[in-house]
Design brief:
Blueprint: H1 2-12, H2 25-45, H3 55-66, E1 76-77, H4 78-88, H5 94-103, E2 115-118, E3 136-139, H6 141-147, E4 157-159, E5 166-168, H7 177-180, E6 183-186, E7 191-194, H8 199-211, H9 221-225, E8 238-240, H10 243-251, E9 253-259, E10 261-266, E11 272-278, H11 285-297, E12 304-309, E13 318-322, H12 328-338, E14 342-348, E15 350-353, E16 356-359, H13 362-403, H14 405-414, H15 418-429, H16 433-441, H17 449-474, H18 476-494, E17 501-503, E18 520-526, E19 530-535, E20 541-542, E21 549-550, E22 560-567, E23 571-576, E24 580-585, E25 599-600, E26 613-619, E27 627-632, E28 636-641, E29 653-654, E30 664-670, E31 675-680, E32 684-689, E33 703-704, E34 714-719, E35 725-730, E36 734-739, E37 753-754, H19 761-764, E38 767-773, E39 778-783, E40 787-792, E41 806-807, E42 817-823, H20 840-843, H21 854-875
Parallel strand pairs: 8-17, 20-40
Antiparallel strand pairs: 1-3, 2-3, 4-5, 6-7, 8-9, 9-14, 10-11, 11-13, 12-13, 15-16, 18-19, 18-22, 19-25, 21-40, 23-24, 23-26, 24-29, 27-28, 27-30, 28-33, 31-32, 31-34, 32-37, 35-36, 35-38, 36-41, 39-40, 39-42
Helix pairs in contact: 3-4, 4-5, 8-13, 8-18, 13-16, 13-17, 13-18, 14-15, 15-16
Length: 876
């Protein structure tokens, strides 16, 4: 019995079993390796260029679609989905399928997620998703665009692994998934790494390609890059330079440098912080934090005091607090160099074209999408035409029956059975079998008048649809236009704003200016040498007489000396009392709160012993034809070309040579045909033409301007605007606007004329500043104690030269006006009080009443002025 079984088994074996065959090992290895390599390339690792999916992705999406797990249905357990995919389509490991499902649900992995998830699906810290028995999923709304029309014979189906079911070889893919979501994969001997892009840009680029499809060879990469700026990563970040992008789009290969997005903040303790709000694509955030901590521990970076990950569901926030006095820009550069905060993304746009791996440039990839969609629409139209014609055939039979209703009924009644009735109808009325059966199956209610009209209406609609589909199939250009219409409708529905910033720098080096928003700011510099900047809207506009809001904490006991209105992308030229100049960008000045004291100025510019900053000027463009006019405390003036200071070394350069005991005080932008006006603290003013002052070099000492008497010194210098006023402010809070026409142009080295009621200097205080303003300008005043008042120039009354002015700002005991900044109305916005800001209406915005009549006071002061000037003339 056993021998018989053995003999039967041996008979069933192939005849070559037990025979040793000679094979060339090199040939055998090549064959086995190539078979394995092609299996990995085609069936696992590389995406199809048409739908941008690998087989496992396609099978997961189709299985969910086949299970009816749609965006409008409840979520289903991921374990159930994975089991469906494994049992029907993908005979591999369950974790491979689940990992695929998880990745398609992660909004930090895919630009437009294809799976709508519920539960823990991992994080940017590298945390894995929860077990599949806990998580749930369903198709996202945009994933339905990948599967639309799949049941209309638009794609080919093939047998599954055991031949019992059919699965699609590609999806219809209205969404250009390969470009907008990208992909990555490692095959045998090759790999792909396609970055994600913005749907709006890709749709616009493909639409442009379709519009020029008849001359597609003339469409250049530059034409497409008008629309497609570059990759758009789901995690945002900053792309450094466009050269790598252009190489990738042109050849399919390139290297893109991506940086995280950062900004600086000042802590309550005065220390600076680096805040990371976006990280490069595919960078592990927890790994980034660990790397920074490792660098600090190993003393590679010695300026970091604290490190915290404050990220939450609202976004990424990694806080890096620096030690006191540390340079934030230097630390940031170290982080970019030694950590993944700056990473490179190697673009390799490799995909399967007709089953073969090809490296594709941007234009070819878009063209493949268009051809795929054209085939899908063509096959869909053929299917719909077939269905429409079949329905029209049935409706034609029903119309014949309705038109011959009595004869049809009589024919059916006279027949012995249904089969005879079928044959009689076909013979008598020349109907097909389908039409005859439709008549026999027709319900009696269809004989009603309204039902008969509905049949006629449906027939007309079907015939119109048939005509439309036949016309569409007869004109390929119309199919191409329909591809564009469908894509633009998809763009309208799902398009969003770009997340990744692209820095178009020729050197591919990131300039800090490219990450800074242009906004109006106020810069304050104190007597103790602290500097800070705050948004101009921090101090809302008030009327004169208001007490203002606190601009600096009183506890600092530090007087504010300078208040400068500027824009964040401007340059600030800092002039010192010793005649040197330094240059720095506005955005590099610490951005602090309204009440913070700021950072030491010596951390920004290299001041020497006994050197202090006395003047600063905001420069937007060094290439203008303007000059700089400098004025010293003793009245020496100098005119120098602005471009002399375009390149200022960090250690500073000489701007003006000074005499012993003199100091540089004011610097203004001017032109050769302007007039300048100089005002002294004791009330004298001199207006003179700048063409009387020749252009000088940096080493010159300047020339004399106004003659000063006694201990008088210069209080202000500005450039004359014929349609503006001269705003004068005194130490005790008085001020006025005087038309510049009242100041006649004189020669240099004169004594000038009175600009204020000098006999009331003790009451109003000496002049602390004088500046040319127009009525529409806004001015911000600041006191020694740090109180700030922002108001319009026209709220300060216009008076003659001889008047003392009116009270502009209520001052506390011992406080004095110290500085003013003029802000053009088109450079800032009138703000609403910020959180915690003192309301000027409650703090004393009521105008202070003036005891004497303003008209009588001005007349009296004018008479006094005339008497004084007459006495001077008599002495002469």
């Amino acid at each position: 019995m056993n021998d018989n079984l053995v003999n039967e088994n041996l008979t069933a074996l192939p005849p070559n079993i037990g025979i040793v065959q000679s094979r060339d090992i090199e040939t055998e290895m090549q064959t086995a390796y190539l078979d394995y390599a092609m299996s990995v390339i085609v069936a696992r690792a590389l995406p199809d260029v048409r739908d941008g999916l690998k087989p496992v992705h396609r099978r997961v999406l189709y299985a969910m679609y086949d299970m009816g797990i749609r965006p409008n249905t409840p979520y289903k357990k991921c374990a159930r989905i994975v089991g469906e995919v494994l049992g029907k389509y993908h005979p591999h490991g369950d974790m491979a399928v689940y990992d695929t499902l998880v990745r398609m649900a992660q909004d930090f992995s895919l630009r437009y997620p294809l799976v709508d998830s519920q539960g823990n699906f991992g994080s940017m810290d590298g945390d894995s998703a929860a077990a599949m028995r806990y998580t749930e999923a369903r198709l996202s709304q945009i994933a339905m665009e990948m599967l639309a029309d799949i049941d209309k014979e638009t794609v080919d189906f093939s047998d599954n692994f055991d031949g019992t079911l059919q699965e699609p070889t590609v999806l219809p893919a209205l969404l250009p998934n390969l470009l907008v979501n990208g992909t990555s994969g490692i095959a045998v001997g090759m790999a792909t790494n396609i970055p994600p892009h913005n749907l709006n840009e890709i749709a616009d680029g493909i639409a442009y390609l379709i519009d020029h499809y008849d001359h597609i060879e003339d469409v250049s990469l530059d034409d497409l890059m008008q629309f497609v700026k570059g990759p758009d990563f789901p995690t945002g970040g900053v792309i450094m330079g466009a050269e790598g992008i252009k190489n990738a789009f042109a050849t399919g290969r390139g290297r893109v440098i991506v940086r995280g997005k950062t900004h600086f903040e000042e802590a309550d303790n005065g220390r600076m912080r680096i805040i990371v709000t976006e990280i490069p694509f595919q960078v592990n955030k927890a790994g980034l934090v660990e790397r920074i901590a490792e660098l600090v521990h190993n003393d590679r970076i010695d300026s970091i005091a604290d490190l915290r990950d404050e990220s939450d569901r609202n976004g990424v926030r990694v806080l890096i607090e620096l030690k006191r006095g540390a340079q934030p820009h230097k630390t940031l550069n170290q982080l970019l160099k030694f950590t993944p905060l700056q990473s490179s993304f190697g673009v390799n746009m490799l995909a399967l074209v007709d089953g073969e791996p090809r490296t594709l440039p941007l234009k070819r990839m878009m063209q493949e999408y268009v051809e795929h969609r054209r085939e899908i629409i063509t096959r869909r139209s053929i299917y719909e035409l077939k269905i429409a014609r079949a329905r029209a055939h049935i409706l034609e039979g029903l119309r014949i029956a309705l038109n011959n209703l009595d004869a049809v009924i009589r024919t059916i009644r006279e027949s012995q059975d249904a089969e005879e009735a079928l044959n009689n109808l076909m013979t008598r009325f020349t109907l097909s079998e389908l039409q005859a059966r439709a008549i026999l199956d027709m319900q009696l209610r269809r004989l009603a008048a309204l039902e008969r009209e509905r049949i006629e209406q449906e027939y007309r609609q079907i015939m119109e649809k048939i005509a439309h589909l036949e016309d569409l199939l007869a004109h390929p250009a119309k199919i191409l236009a329909l591809v564009k219409v469908d894509l633009l409708a998809l763009q309208e529905k799902y398009g969003d704003e770009r997340r990744t910033v692209i820095v178009s720098a020729e050197t591919q080096e990131l300039r800090d200016e490219d990450l800074v928003a242009q906004e109006q700011v106020l810069i304050t510099i104190t007597q103790r040498g602290y500097i800070k900047r705050v948004p101009a809207t921090t101090f809302r506009k008030q009327t004169r007489g208001g007490r203002g809001v606190t601009g600096l904490t009183k506890a600092s006991e530090d007087d504010v000396l300078h208040l400068i209105a500027a824009k964040t992308l401007d340059s600030i030229l800092f002039f010192t009392n010793k005649g040197r100049v330094f240059s720095e960008k506005v955005f590099r000045i610490a951005d602090t709160s309204r009440t913070a004291k700021g950072t030491p100025l010596v951390n920004l510019i290299a001041l020497g012993d006994g050197e202090k900053m006395t003047a600063a000027i905001d420069i937007s463009n060094f290439s203008t034809d303007a000059d700089l006019l400098m004025c010293t405390k003793r009245g020496r003036i100098k005119r120098i070309a602005l471009d002399e200071f375009e390149s200022v070394r960090p250690s500073g350069i000489v701007a003006l040579n000074l005499e012993d005991g003199d100091e540089l005080g004011w610097v203004k932008l001017a032109r050769g045909n302007d007039d300048a006006i100089i005002v002294s603290a004791h009330g004298k003013a001199l207006r003179f033409a700048l063409n009387t002052v020749r252009l000088m070099g940096r080493a010159a000492a300047g020339v004399n301007s106004i003659k000063l008497e006694g201990d008088d010194q210069i209080a202000g210098m500005d450039i004359v605007d014929a349609e503006s006023d001269l705003l004068i402010l005194t130490a005790n809070g008085f001020g006025k606007r005087t038309p510049l026409a009242e100041y006649a142009t004189k020669g240099r080295r004169g004594k000038g004329m009175w600009a204020i009621a000098h006999r009331k200097i003790e009451e109003i205080g000496p002049i602390v500043t004088a500046q040319v303003v127009s009525p529409d300008d806004e001015v911000t005043l600041i006191t020694a104690n740090g109180m700030v008042l922002r108001t319009t120039a026209k709220s300060i009354s216009q008076q003659g030269r001889a008047t003392k002015g009116i009270r502009i700002m209520r001052l506390e005991d011992g406080d004095q006006l110290r500085s003013i900044a003029k802000i053009k109305v088109d450079e800032t916005t009138t703000g609403v009080p910020t959180d915690g800001q003192v309301s000027a209406a409650k703090a004393g915005a009521k105008l202070e009443e003036i005891s004497e009549d303003a008209g009588d006071a001005e007349a009296d002061d004018t008479r006094e002025l005339d008497e004084d000037e007459q006495a001077v003339d008599n002495q002469k």
